[in-house]
Amino acid sequence: MMRPDIGRIGLAVTSGSHAGLSEGEICSAIEQALSDHIDKLRKVLIIPPDITRIHSGAGMITQHLYRLLNKNCIVDILPALGTHVPMTREECALMYGDIPFERFIEHNWRRDVVRLGEVPAEFVRSVSEGIYNEPIAVEINKLLLDPSYDLILSVGQVVPHEVAGMANYSKNIFVGCGGSSMINGTHMLGAFYGLERLMGKDHSPVRQVFDYAEENYIKELPLVYILTVVAPYDDAHGIYGLFIGRDRKYFEQAVKLSTERNIIFTDKPFSKVVVYLDENEFRSTWLGNKAIYRTRMAIADGGDLIILAPGVNKFGEDELIDRLIRKYGYIGRLNILDLVEKNEDLKSNLSAAAHLIHGSSDSRFNITYCTKHLKKEDVEGVGFRYFPFDEAIKLYDPKKLEDGLNNVQGEEVYYVSNPALGLWADRKKFFAD
Of the candidates 29, 53, 55, 415, which has an alpha carbon nearest to the alpha carbon of residue 238? Predict the structure, then answer.
């Protein structure tokens, strides 16, 4: 059976509707994009995001793809876990509906990857303006190289991101289905370069590394991207753009729309920002620290960030990373860089070091985690302030707060109901670079 000519697969659909694209419009667009190939396919691999991207729309899209393709061919699903914990049966049901759990394959970033080559140090040095001078190995899950797959469909959301600048596209492959070298190297590259310089922007140093790897190592894979742009409306989330194709132009169109929909510019920084973390989505500070880096450019010097985190019960997504976070803490960029040079455990786990940099305010503003499951000594032990969740919601009740500015007992508070959906930035700070 001949593999499909993926160069012929391409479609972009956007909506000016208040609520975004309907499920019917999304499903019709997918069927249209794949219509010439559906009857010829015998085995397909779908790579969606995991439960930490539950609001991406990818769960619904994956369900539709399975129903569409399962009639004629074998469909395997490989959630792009990266370093995250594997999804449970219950989480798969919550995100992907009635797809049989047996169709899901777990990605292990330490065990399941093969090395394809490397991005040379000279290239990394050039794109990082001389800041980072190490080669970065290109490793991906071995399943992607299985010649029995006629088509690989990578599904995910384009949104501002602390490492890549804008999430998804080839990041879903090289990090979501990648190995330790690529994950560690790109995370540290982004941290060295400066997350405030790259968040919300295409062509960051990390994105250029992904582009190099895409062009030089996986160009021949039968890979097609299905990209969404999601933004909140009323009490829900809408998909305002769907971009299907291998060509980078579809990613660039998604980036343009995400810039319009997902970056919330402010005319001044705020003294107090309150962020709520959905307990179904955020169960570790590794994930929950989106509350920090997605809002840091909107927080005034000396200000306060209050994080309402009812589901957070650990720091890292695996035991090793959790131990490293507990050991070193969120103590600022320069301190972490110094510790990397002196400690082999951090040097061997650069993604953890990068995460510690991302999760620190560098003493510019105060960070308070309000938790149910982590103890006061645990939270304070990694460098945050602590306040009990049940006490915090008496002051900052998510049911009463609205996204944006609120008056709470005479105090101006800026509220964010889900940090995963955007980037909040003082206009002057965002365009300072």
Answer: 55
User: Which class for 363: exposed (0-12), middle (13-18), buried (19 or more C-beta within 10 A)?
Assistant: exposed
Q: Which residue, 208, 398, 223, is CA-closest to 309?
A: 398
Distance CA 324, CA 356 (A): 9
For 238, the token pair is 């809408």
At 57, the amino acid letter reads G
pLDDT tier, 234 (very low <50, low <70, confident <90, very high otherwise): low
Close Cβ partners of 350 (under 8 Å, ≥ 6 residues apart) = 184, 185, 187, 188, 340
Q: Is the pLDDT of residue 342 over 90?
A: yes
Question: Which CATH topology does 6-263 take?
Answer: Rossmann fold (3.40.50)
SS3 state at 336: helix
Which residues make up the CATH 3.40.50.11440 domain(s) of the chain?
6-263
pLDDT attached to residue 59? 93
Which single residue is written with the structure tokens 């070193």?
328
pTM over 0.85, yes/no: yes
Kindly report the number of other CB atoms within 10 A of residue 216's CB atom: 15
| pLDDT surpasses 90 at 256 | yes
DSSP-derived secondary structure letter, 198: H
* Distance between CA atoms of residues 228 and 57, nearest Å: 7
Alpha-carbon gap, residue 274 to 278, rounded angstroms: 13
Check pLDDT > 90 for residue 2: no
CA distances to 3, 201, 340 from 345, rounded to whole Å, are: 44, 31, 8
How far apart CA 84 and CA 25 sit, in angstroms, is: 32
**Over 90: is that where the pLDDT of 75 sits?**
yes
Q: Which of 1-5, 123-127, 146-150 has the lowest mean pLDDT?
A: 1-5
Alpha helices, DSSP H only, in 5-85? 23-34, 58-69
pLDDT, mean of residues 231-255: 90
Instruction: Write down the CATH number for the domain with range 267-430.
Output: 3.90.226.30
CB contact set of 259 (below 8 Å; sequence gap of 6+): 200
